[in-house]
Amino acid sequence: MGYIKTEKNVQEVDVSENPDYDVEVLGSKGAIVTDEVFGAITDKGPNYRSVGWLGTSVLMMKTQMGLGVLSMPAVFDTLGMIPGVICLIAIAAITTWSDYIVGMWKLAHPETYDIADVMMRIFGRFGYEIMNFAYTLFWIAVSGSAMLGLSTALNAVSTHGACTAVFVAVAAIIAMGLASIRTLGKISWLAWVGVTSIVVSILVLTISVGVQDRPSAAPQTGDWEPEIKLFGSPSFTSAISAIGTLVFSYAGTPAFFSIVSEMREPRLYTRALITCQALITCVYLAIGIVVYYFCGAYVASPALGSAGALMKKVCYGLAIPGLVSTVCLVTHLPAKQIFVRLLRGSPHLTSNSITHWAYWLGCVAACTIIAYIIASAVPVFGGLVSLVGALLGTLMCFQPMGFMWLYLHRNDERSTKWYAGVTWSVFVIVAGMFLMISGTYGSIVDIKNSYAQYGGTAAWTCADNSGSV
């Protein structure tokens, strides 16, 4: 329920049933809309209800699509082309259902801001604190990974023109500056640029590997074969690690609560979701199949180097705006979550007061600095991100949504449809637990093996992290 204040009177309206109300227009006329999460939204402060459904779609896509899309050929090489495609579609279907439940829950409980609020209602304070910590840790780890990704692009384009530690610091400064934009409505334009940038980059790569004689990692003389596998024969840990990569590629689900909370019209969430998931899945399938078909087992690592040194620079250069938007968004999310928790119920949440700015900039700075330190100082950061993704990414994309459906429909009439829903929800919970436990085990084994073979990286290293071609 919201309230529109005019010069003559105060009119109570149900905002969810009046999609034509534009919060920004109302605010410019001195109106007030009371939101269940943010409180009174006026022209005296940031407008936290300004994202349209197309902006929502692109924000969803940007939380999921990064250079990780180029891990799809490696997944297909591990699992085999056919099992890889089947697993990708299965993960897409389950996570799309999970994402849909987010929208259902938000409409039923509009006071929900994040996944921790859900756990508070279902499991009480203990569930709230556990999920609150998991959400924050997950996105800070992803933020650190995004900083390293941007440093990799800068290294590639400049031919290692500076110490990698310097590039990571530059990425952290960019993250802190852009993540301090207060509303997702004003970040959505950056997400548009980012998604376009990433798609163009990977399309250029795909075309390049299709027209070249052979990928750069293949033997450069004599005959060669891409060694495409229709069915792979991986070990358990390799297979579960590959499936974990697919889950991580759709692990934007926990951010969807925050995104839908800033929509002008939450009833259009499902439209935005279908647009996002359909486009994401098509891109993953197209890039994965085409690049794997032409490169096979010779996909370079990082994959943007598969078309040679020159195209590696071109592809990374095209991808930089996308990496910038990624580091902005994934730093903004944990900062906003902490900020809302600290000021929820206070008039400072939606004002331009000194207290508001002090808390907001402090949250952004804290998340940025922690992500930067972890990314730069931890000697096995890549393995750590895989571990966090396996443990927390799955935990926030599968199990909670199964419990959410059961909670929402606990009082429904017992029918065939209800029992089917219960069966599916329980399956999602059990599948999530299996993937979480096995994926965590696989990540730990990979960290152990990698550390034994290569050792860790030095803290604040200067070494080139863009790979060689």
From TrEMBL:
The keyword Membrane applies. Residues 52-444 form the Amino acid transporter transmembrane domain. Pfam families: Aa_trans (PF01490). It is a multi-pass membrane protein. Belongs to the amino acid/polyamine transporter 2 family. GO terms for cellular component: membrane. The keyword Transmembrane applies. One of its GO terms (molecular function) is L-amino acid transmembrane transporter activity. This is Amino acid transporter transmembrane domain-containing protein. The chain crosses the membrane at residues 51-76, 82-105, 126-150, 156-178, 190-211, 239-260, 272-294, 314-335, 356-375, 381-406, 418-441. InterPro entries: AA_transpt_TM (IPR013057). Keywords: Membrane, Transmembrane, Transmembrane helix. It is found in: Membrane. PANTHER family: AMINO ACID TRANSPORTER, AMINO ACID TRANSPORTER (EUROFUNG).
